[in-house]
């Protein structure tokens, strides 16, 4: 068991350039005047051996942790916790599971950010092209009329960018992550150097700190039951209805969830013992099957959450796999890595008549590396990434996921490592 106390001090003092804060540019930023806070934390951890050397219980351990934090800038206190079990059924099988709750306090910049003025693409719901949208009961048109805007009115935002005023929000609360994992590890005693693990994970994020969005402020103003709401107060309109500015800020609003299964396997072969050859051959594999990658936004007009699922789209593949094979002889090591990422559409609901070539093919990339230990302290190496020179320049959407879809093709590198 262990316990401790931690005290931290954080401060933020931001001074934009004189030109940027002068108002002479199209955008403007004010500074943050040396805001600060104190954080006091108390934590404890424990590991309890429950059973050992029994039938179906080579060992059974329970672990836990608790952390209490008090932030001087928030009225609430935050508690994080973890509870886990590690159960070795026998020498070959081990079950493990963890349930945890973690929090992220809002950062000083999110709470005390100075006023920022810029211009963005905005949609005015009272424009003649938008006024018949919104809820089916026609409240948008009635609310726009209550603002003094008549049918057939063309907004000044049509074809132009609108002024957005952004700032921090001192009323922000913490983000919360609830995580559950469960799986097992298989290390057969009759097969040397083999290890296989399978784990299920479920990560649920709530009260995410997000920017609400100026266009959402505009639409919520006239899509709620009346214009007597907090959103209309964030919009400045001229007497003729033109939008002069929209105020945007951070708030705790959205949720996100990710579920999946991770499979890992590692096997090392003593080549002299198995095949009467020099060296060691090791192969490692990691496979991920995502089951869910969803995002939930709250619809303030309908008064209910709206959940969207991006699984199977670009950036949220159902399947990913890495395979790495390494052969080492004396001071030389050679490694070949293959990375697979399942392709898919850019968005799940893209209009096929509007977007062509939105489906991205699977990514299969091979990398090569060789290293030589000159001394115990010095190593030289060289490698080739993307050996087969694959590129995805034929699809404009791959720019959004360049880690998995190369735009540069084959690349070479070399270097030296030295331990002092």
From TrEMBL:
Source domain of life: Bacteria
Record-linked PROSITE patterns: TONB_DEPENDENT_REC_3 (PS52016)
Domain TonB-dependent receptor-like beta-barrel as annotated: residue spans? 32-387
Write down the membrane topology.
Multi-pass membrane protein
Q: What's one GO-annotated cellular component?
A: cell outer membrane
What InterPro entries does this protein map onto? Beta-barrel_TonB (IPR000531), Beta-barrel_TonB_sf (IPR036942), TonB-dep_rcpt-like (IPR039426)
Task: Supply the alphabetized keyword list.
Answer: Cell outer membrane, Membrane, TonB box, Transmembrane, Transmembrane beta strand, Transport
Name the record gives this protein: Outer membrane insertion C-terminal signal
Is Transmembrane one of the keywords UniProt gives this record?
Answer: yes
Localization, UniProt: Cell outer membrane
């Amino acid at each position: 068991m262990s316990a401790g106390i931690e005290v931290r001090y954080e401060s933020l003092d931001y001074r934009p350039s004189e030109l940027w804060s002068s108002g002479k540019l199209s955008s403007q930023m004010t500074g943050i005047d040396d805001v600060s806070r104190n954080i006091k934390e108390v934590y404890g951890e424990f590991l309890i051996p429950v059973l050992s050397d029994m039938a179906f219980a080579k060992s059974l351990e329970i672990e836990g942790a608790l952390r209490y934090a008090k932030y001087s800038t928030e009225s609430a206190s935050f508690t994080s916790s973890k509870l886990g079990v590690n159960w070795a059924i026998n020498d070959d099988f081990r079950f493990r599971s963890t349930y945890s709750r973690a929090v992220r306090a809002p950062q000083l910049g999110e709470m005390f950010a100075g006023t920022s003025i810029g211009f963005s693409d905005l949609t005015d719901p009272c424009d003649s092209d938008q006024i018949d949208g919104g809820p089916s009961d026609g409240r948008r048109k009635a609310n726009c009329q209550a603002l003094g805007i008549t049918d057939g009115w063309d907004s000044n935002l049509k074809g132009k960018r609108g002024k957005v005023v952004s700032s921090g929000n001192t009323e922000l609360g913490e983000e919360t992550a609830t995580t559950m994992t469960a799986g097992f590890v298989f290390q057969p005693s009759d097969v040397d150097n083999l290890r296989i693990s399978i784990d299920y994970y479920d990560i649920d994020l709530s009260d995410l700190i997000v920017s609400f969005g100026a266009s959402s402020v505009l639409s919520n103003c006239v899509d709620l039951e009346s214009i007597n709401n907090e959103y209309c107060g964030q919009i400045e309109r001229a007497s003729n209805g033109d939008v002069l500015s929209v105020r945007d800020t951070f708030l705790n609003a959205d949720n996100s969830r990710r579920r999946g299964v991770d499979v890992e396997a590692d096997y090392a072969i003593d080549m002299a013992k198995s095949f009467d050859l020099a060296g060691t051959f090791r192969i490692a594999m990691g496979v991920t099957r995502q089951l869910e990658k969803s995002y939930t936004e709250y619809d303030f007009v309908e008064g209910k959450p709206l959940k969207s699922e991006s699984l199977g789209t670009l950036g949220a593949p159902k399947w990913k796999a890495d395979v790495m094979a390494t052969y080492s002889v004396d001071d030389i090591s050679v490694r070949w890595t293959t990375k697979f990422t399942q392709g898919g559409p850019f968005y799940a609901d893209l209009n096929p008549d509007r977007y062509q070539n939105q489906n991205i093919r699977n990514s299969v990339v091979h990398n090569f590396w060789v290293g030589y230990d000159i001394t115990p302290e010095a190593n030289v190496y060289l490698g080739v990434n993307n050996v087969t020179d694959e590129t995805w320049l034929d699809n404009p959407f791959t720019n959004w996921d360049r880690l998995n879809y190369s735009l540069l093709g084959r690349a070479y590198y070399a270097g030296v490592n030295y331990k002092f």
